[in-house]
Task: structure prediction
Amino acid sequence: MEREKLFQELKKRVKEESIIKHMLAVEAIMRALAKKFNKDEGEQGVAGLLHDIDYDPTKDSPKLHSIVGAKILEKMGPDETIVQAIKSRNGAHGIPRRTLIKKALYAADPVSGLTTTGAIIKDKKFENVDKDFVLKRFQEKRFAKGVNRDQIDICKELELSLKEFVEIALSAMNEIHKELGL
Result:
C-alpha cells in the first residue's frame, strides 16, 4: 500500500492533530536515518508514520499499545518488517530490538518529543532550535519530563552519538516544520 493511502487510513483512526503531527515527525526522522544508513526510506518512513496508529484505542491501556497497532497493520498490508518494528517499540512486550529499523523507531519516537518541546519554547519554530540547546535540555530531567532519555540513548546502538542523532532529528523535523506547525 502506498504512503498516501496509509496516511489517509491513519487519519481515519487517529483523531488528535498533535498525535498526527508527532507521527509525521517520527516519519521524517526515520526517513533521515534510512538515508544515512542506505536503507529503504519508504519502508523506514512508513514505520515512523504508522507507529502510533493504535493511539486512540490504546491511550488508556498502554500495555496494549503497539500490539493493537500491529494487528491493525496486518490487515492494512504494509511489509512485515514494518509491523514487527512497530510491535517491538513498546518495551512492555519484551520483544528484542535487533534490527536497525526496530532500534531507530524506538529511539526516534521520544527524540521527536524532546525536539518538539524545544521548538515550542523557542518561539514555536524549529529554526530557532539547535543541537546544543536540545543536548543541554536532554540533561534536564524536568524539561520534556515525559520523554524517556534511556530510549533516546538507544541511538548509540546505531553507532550514532547523541549529538549526531539530535542533529539528524532536528534537520529532518525542520524540513517538515510547516506540516508540524512549528
User: Anything to note?
Assistant: The first helix runs from residue 3 to 13. The CA atoms of residues 16 and 56 lie 8 Å apart.
